[in-house]
Amino acid sequence: MAEVIAQEQQGGKQKKKLIKIDMTPMVDLNFLLLMFFMFTTNFTKPNVMDLGLPAKDHNPKPPINDYVIGDKNQVTFILGKDNRVFYHQSNATDLNTSNLKETDFSGLNISKIISEAYKNAPNQKKFTVIIKPTDEANYKNFVDILDDLAISKKERYGVTDIKPWETKVYKELTQ
């Protein structure tokens, strides 16, 4: 691996010894250590939240009117741009700028809104949270509202597109 070449003395002066080191085995050793640590290390697994998606029904049945939720048995959250979130408990004819209220993601605001709507629901078994992200909403806000749902322990929720009548009122408030 290492060679020491000694040269003779000439005229009373001693010449320096030339040392030559062969680094080839060191490179091999480094490569083997690198491979060892790559194969034996544990990579962290990402923490994910389980979305309770329904199983695919192979024999779909026609819808029954019993599944109608009703305005007061639900609360709808609209995720907007610039981390803004709006909520309402209205239908297409009743929704206006005074019914569409704004809140934010700070603290437990959304969990409190869900709890209040749940307490006031006529049929708490059918109570559902509806999440409607707009095109301007970001993914972080969607994850935040799912976290708030997990905190409030409400398992009935749905994610859908914002309706045109909601878009009209939303745009009036954000302009």
Structure keywords:
175 residues; alpha/beta; Nucleotidyltransferase, domain 5; 5-stranded mixed sheet; 31% helix; ExbD
Protein architecture, described:
- The chain has 4 helices and 7 strands; from the N terminus they run E-E-H-E-E-E-H-E-H-E-H.
- It has a 5-stranded mixed beta sheet, covered by helices on one side.
- It is α/β, with parallel strands linked by helices.
- It has a domain at 69-174: Nucleotidyltransferase, domain 5 (2-Layer Sandwich), CATH 3.30.420.
- The model has no long low-confidence stretch (mean pLDDT 82).
- The radius of gyration is 33 Å and the shape is elongated.
- Helix 2 packs across helix 3.
**Beta-strand residue percentage:** 15-25%
Q: What's the CATH architecture name of the domain at 69-174? A: 2-Layer Sandwich
State the separation between the terminal residues, measured CA to CA.
76 Å
Helix content range of the residues, please?
Answer: 25-40%
Round the Cα radius of gyration to an integer and report it. Answer: 33 Å
Question: What form results from the Cα inertia axes?
Answer: elongated
The level 1 CATH classification of the domain at 69-174 is Alpha Beta
Predict the CATH topology of the domain at 69-174. Nucleotidyltransferase, domain 5
Structural class: alpha/beta
Mean of all residue-level pLDDT scores: 82
Low-confidence stretches: none
- Tell me the total number of β-strands: 7
Count the DSSP helices: 4
* Major sheet details: 5 strands, mixed
